[in-house]
From TrEMBL:
Region entry Disordered, spans: 670-702
Name of the protein this chain belongs to: Sodium/hydrogen exchanger
Species: Shewanella denitrificans (strain OS217 / ATCC BAA-1090 / DSM 15013)
Subcellular location(s) of the protein: Cell membrane
Polar residues bias spans: 674-683
Record domain RCK N-terminal: where: 401-491
GO molecular function: antiporter activity
Broad class of the protein's primary localization: membrane
One cellular component (GO) term of this entry: plasma membrane
Length: 702
């Protein structure tokens, strides 16, 4: 029997890991493979029976697991940060949550006939969405950056708020269900103990952390142990008050000044992943499939209300006064998958309420699971097409995640932001992060490959990762993490492997990717150049100023980093592939001091050459002007000569024409004279004798 229990526990651990990996690989919420695994092992094959295996230990295991889940979620609820995520997120986690609760509770009461108390509890349970289900869906759908941010932060913030609401409703039901207690006294004591003890415990833990009471290696363990102790102690003082106490405790700790909970939160998230995975397999294995079928059309009707009425109504009312378009709101209306937190809390509450004899409590678990399955499956399959239809899918991701917020990284990020390229800096060094924030650069403080970063690091619009930190042990982890996420060709790293001993030598495949900005470029080299006064330079490569001109001006020491194309695409310079620099791009390069000095020399030489060219041009212009004047004079003289010749020729032609006319007149006169003489001779012979003519001729005139 012991071996059987041990084997089942080990099997659950292995299966939970496999389901988490499968969800990551398929870019689906891990809740789907976990649910299928639990249903297959439990109701399907009958291999796993949690009640038989754990017996009386099942309830304490689930109870402690839910306490850890609620405490971890409460650690993320920082009231100061809620406003930073925009008006829409603030409205969704307040007004939107109340609208959703007000829509779902009456639907459960009138459609399924649940008592008002259970209907209100069910409505509070399914208010939450949760980052564990929304983040994988966003990676698959890839909506616009602002929509992705709204959904992601809604899931993060609504998780503890919805859980707190559900705990309060449960506390009321648990108190009223016990006929031996006075409702107001018990409820008042529960609230007083939960709020008071939770705040007090959170304050003292915060003071202990701030004062470094615990050594570094005991911090996480101490917080977890104290939290579980406070949970159990609160339940001993007032039954069922522990969940409210640990929730308030986490919220108080998250909002306490001067307390660094980053490492604690990362540890809790790692533990929560294990707990959630194992718990969900156990809870799904306990699920009675016939109970879900018994819900019938009423259960589907409630699902329709949740997806088609409650969610759109909360989105459109919460979106009043915001800059969201109608397409944005319709997309948000279809994205609200319910997660593991709702399943875990509902199972715990159902067990407790059944033990108190609350009628209808057994309906809560199958109904919550129906909502989880329906929302996750339907929205996972349709959200991508819906986003494409509405036109809210993000374009090609050109943004950069830079690990390492050094001076060089900050200046590069600032320069890229002026070119409308999204950049996020991540670093473990708070001073670097603080200076980046002062430069208005989006940052993430911590390890970007952590579980915390998986939830909180906004990667919308990010398509490539540049590993440029001095942390030699952490760089490979970050590189491999994002190679799995984006692909090997989208992750670049600086060469930090010089001087590494053989026992610490990294894999050859990893070393091949350490060629960012060129194979000979390392973090130490860039840091040294920046310390000596190197600057970033943006150069327009055109037909009149090609990359050859760039090399001629700045020399071989100038380091091309990346360039922007005309269509705003980012091309990273790397040693893995040959790079050409076409015309029409904006080249961003790092110029060391000697490159800047050479540029000054080349500029002076170019200016001197320009001056010499101008002088020569002026001389040539004067010579050309003189030559032009001489030529114009010669042309004028030639024109005068030609004109005179034309005049003489015209005169000669006129004289010749006059002579010809005179000749013609003379010839005509002569011809007329001859004709006249001929006529006279003919007439005299015919009319008079010749003598008479003579006499008439010789007769003197009077």
């Amino acid at each position: 029997m012991v071996e059987h229990i041990t084997g089942m526990l080990a099997g659950i651990g292995v299966l939970s890991l496999l389901c988490q990996w499968l969800g990551w690989k398929l870019r689906l919420p891990a809740i789907l493979p976990l649910l299928l695994c639990g249903l297959l092992l439990g109701p399907g094959l009958g291999i796993l029976d949690p009640d038989e295996i754990f017996g009386d230990l099942l309830f304490p295991i689930i109870s402690l697991g839910v306490a850890v889940i609620l405490f971890e979620g409460a650690l993320t609820l920082n009231f100061k940060e809620i406003k930073d995520h925009g008006r829409m997120v603030t409205n969704l986690v307040t007004i939107g949550a109340l609208i959703t609760w007000a829509c779902i509770a009456p639907a459960a009461h009138y459609i399924l006939g649940l008592e008002w108390s259970l209907a209100l509890l069910f409505g509070a349970l399914v208010v939450v969405t949760g980052p564990t289900v929304i983040v994988p869906m966003l990676r698959s759908v890839q909506p616009k950056s602002n929509l992705s941010s709204i959904l992601r932060w809604e899931g993060i913030v609504i998780d503890p708020i919805g859980a707190l609401l559900a705990v309060l409703v449960y506390e009321y039901i648990a108190v009223t269900a016990d006929p031996t207690t006075h409702v107001l006294n018990a409820l008042g004591l529960t609230l007083l103990l939960g709020l008071g003890l939770g705040a007090l415990a959170g304050y003292f833990i915060g003071v202990a952390l701030r004062s470094n009471v615990f050594p570094h290696y005991l911090r996480n363990t101490a917080v977890l142990t104290i939290m579980l102790g406070v949970f159990v102690g609160s339940n001993i003082i007032q039954e069922e008050s522990g969940l409210l106490t640990v929730t308030v405790m986490g919220i108080w700790l998250a909002n306490m000044r001067g307390v660094d909970i980053a490492e604690i939160l990362e540890f809790k998230e790692t533990l929560t992943v294990l707990l959630i995975s194992a718990l969900f397999i156990l809870l799904a294995a306990r699920l009675d499939s016939s109970a879900m079928l018994d819900l019938g059309w009423g259960g589907l009707g409630v699902l329709v209300v949740v997806m088609v009425i409650a969610r759109p109504l909360s989105i459109w009312i919460s979106g009043l006064g915001t800059s969201l378009t109608s397409a944005d709101k319709w997309f948000l209306s279809w994205m609200a998958p319910r997660g593991i937190v709702a399943a875990a809390i509902s199972s715990l509450f159902a067990i407790k309420l059944e033990s108190l004899g609350v009628e209808g409590a057994s309906t809560i678990v199958p109904l919550v699971f129906l909502i989880i399955i329906g929302t996750v499956v339907i929205q996972s399959l349709t959200a991508g097409r819906w986003a494409k239809f509405l036109g809210v899918k993000a374009g090609s991701s050109q943004g950069l995640l830079i690990f390492g917020a050094s001076k060089f990284a900050r200046e590069l990020a600032s320069l890229l932001q002026t070119k409308q390229i999204k950049v996020v800096l991540a670093d473990n060094n708070w001073d670097n992060i603080r200076q980046a924030r002062m430069d208005n650069i989006p940052v993430y403080f911590g390890n970007p490959a952590s579980e915390h970063a998986t939830t909180y690091l906004d990667l919308s619009g990010i398509g490539r990762v540049l590993v440029m930190s001095p942390y030699r042990q952490l760089n490979p982890l970050v590189s491999f993490h994002f190679q799995d996420l984006f692909g090997t060709e989208k992750v670049y790293g600086l060469n930090n492997a010089e001087g590494v001993s053989a026992r610490h030598q990294l894999s050859e495949n990893y070393l091949k990717r350490l060629c960012l900005f060129g194979e000979a470029v390392s973090y130490a080299k860039i840091a040294s150049l920046m310390a000596k006064g190197a600057v970033l330079k943006v150069t327009n490569i055109t037909e009149s100023f090609t990359f050859e001109h760039f090399r001629q001006r700045y020399g071989d020491t100038a380091m091309p980093l990346l360039y922007l194309t005309k269509d705003a695409k980012v091309k990273i310079v790397s040693g893995t592939e040959p790079f050409d620099f076409p015309v029409g791009i904006e080249l961003i390069s790092l110029l060391p001091i000697d490159a800047q000095e050479q540029a000054l020399v080349q500029k002076a030489l170019a200016e001197e050459a320009d001056r010499a060219a101008k002088v020569q041009a002026e001389i040539e212009a004067k010579a050309a002007a003189e030559a032009r004047k001489v030529k114009e004079a010669e042309e004028a003289e030639q024109r005068a000569i030609a004109k005179e010749q034309a005049r003489v020729e015209a005169q000669q032609l006129a004289e010749e024409e006059a002579y010809k006319q005179q000749q013609a007149i003379a010839e005509q006169a002569e011809a007329e004279a001859l004709t006249s003489n001929d006529d006279t001779i003919i007439d005299t012979t015919a009319a008079e004798p010749i003598d008479a003519v003579v006499e008439e001729t010789d007769k003197p005139k009077t």
